């Protein structure tokens, strides 16, 4: 069994960790069914990129949800991405990427899940993992 990463408990939109402007490194899928949620605030209108990288034994799926400002809850699914390129044998292609125009003073939930759908191999020294950046 692998220990949870530093961002746990972040398995739901209500327990999402805030993205504070710097990449979040060292996310893991430490158990079967583990998913990670992040909430991000965008102060200025921009072309925003949401991306997983530094893929280690996983194959991420990235989901972008609206943030419901009146309730603070998860809104509708806006976009999803499985592989950011088509060469699935290239570990870097197993990362996910969403590029989207976003309005000023908006917020979003980001969910990251492991396409493989299984947890860590107890015989491996580390759990499957990735890093997340939003820019």
Automatic annotation (TrEMBL):
It comes from the Bacteria. This is Peptidase C-terminal archaeal/bacterial domain-containing protein. It comes from Hyalangium rubrum.
């Amino acid at each position: 069994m692998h220990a949870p990463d530093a961002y746990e408990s972040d398995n739901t939109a209500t327990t999402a960790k805030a993205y504070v402007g710097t990449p979040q490194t060292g996310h893991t899928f430490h158990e079967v069914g583990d998913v990670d949620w992040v909430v991000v605030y965008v102060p200025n209108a921009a072309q925003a990129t949401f991306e997983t990288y530094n893929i280690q034994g996983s194959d991420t799926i990235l989901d972008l949800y609206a943030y419901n400002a009146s309730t603070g809850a998860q809104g509708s699914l806006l976009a999803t991405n499985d592989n950011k390129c088509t060469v699935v044998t290239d570990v870097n292609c197993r990362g996910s990427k969403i590029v989207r125009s976003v309005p000023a003073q908006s917020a979003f939930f980001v969910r990251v899940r492991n396409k493989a759908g299984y947890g860590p191999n107890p015989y491996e020294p580390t759990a499957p993992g990735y890093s997340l950046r939003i820019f």
